[in-house]
Amino acid sequence: MTGGLVLEGVTAGYGAVHVLHDIDLAVADGSITAVVGANGAGKTTLLRTITGQLRPSAGSIRLTGGAGGKGGTDGTDLTRVPVEDMVRHGVALVPEGRGVITELTVEENLRLGGLWRKDRRAAAEVLTQMYELFEPLARRRKAAGHQLSGGERQMLALGRALMAAPALLLLDEPSLGLAPKVTASILGMLRRLRDDTGLTVLLIEQNVRSALAVADHGVVLNLGRVVASRPAAELAEDTDLRHTYLGF
Ligand SMILES: Nc1ncnc2c1ncn2[C@@H]1O[C@H](COP(=O)(O)OP(=O)(O)OP(=O)(O)O)[C@@H](O)[C@H]1O
To answer: Any stretches that span the bilayer, and where are they (predicted)?
Structure first.
């Protein structure tokens, strides 16, 4: 499971309104990159553009898988890939608000994530792995989505996305509405996944401190432009930049 990402000169928005301006961004294969910025900076728009929900009016978006990357990720041009085909290209999104189907059980939600896989046995193996990774889900496999806590729902959304064995995982605000301890545990899982499987992660977060603590690389967006792109630890220590763009 490998899949870096490169955006070059991406401009996108809604109709005639440009929200993202000439975005250059690289997510290294097997790394965690956090995109941070104030409300309205364009973070969600960026994810929508990468996942094909919005078409950029200029620029390109490419996957840069290493040798042996799955699903033909080597150099795949995502710019024109329709949103429903993203999963086949190894790209999975955990949307803001989690995307769990609340009427279905934990297990049904997870199985949905692996549905497109032709190899049933592989899907069953991944299901077992998900229960090993997310112990609370194993205990609640028969519970309906609406019976879960916020943290369990976020785990389920993450587990469901991972059922597709993505090369690149995109997360929109995984900490939203979660207690700090639960956030830390979810973000810790991303780190473990990166270490154990080489998963590439692009994380959009309001919770800047937590995001930069878990990420390898940090990108600051302001008014739809990249104003900083540096190792996450460096960004976290840059008080001027924090005061100017991140409000703390
Ligand atoms: N569907 C839409 N139609 C028109 N403009 C939109 C739409 N969605 C977002 N915008 C505008 O795009 C800009 C960026 O919004 P976006 O949601 O991408 O920012 P964000 O950084 O994710 O902020 P937040 O954390 O508040 O979601 C904002 O000015 C917003 O008003």
So the answer is: none
Q: Which CATH superfamily is domain 4-246 in?
A: P-loop containing nucleotide triphosphate hydrolases (3.40.50.300)
The best mutation among 11, 20, 44 to test binding of ligand 1, ranked by most ligand atoms within 8 Å of the C-beta, falls on 44
**Spatial separation of the C-alpha atoms in residues 175 and 160, rounded to whole Å:** 17
Question: From the CA atom positions of the chain, what is the Rg in Å?
Answer: 17
Can you give the residue ranges of every domain in the chain?
4-246
Which positions of the chain have pLDDT values less than 50?
A: 1, 67-73
Ligand 1 mutation target, pool 43, 96, 205, most atoms within 8 A of CB = 43
Please give the model's pTM, rounded to 2 decimal places: 0.91
In this predicted complex, what is the ipTM?
Answer: 0.95
> Tokens in use for 223?
């008014």
Do 156 and 145 touch, CB atoms closer than 8 A? yes
Helix (H) or strand (E) holding 63: strand 58-64
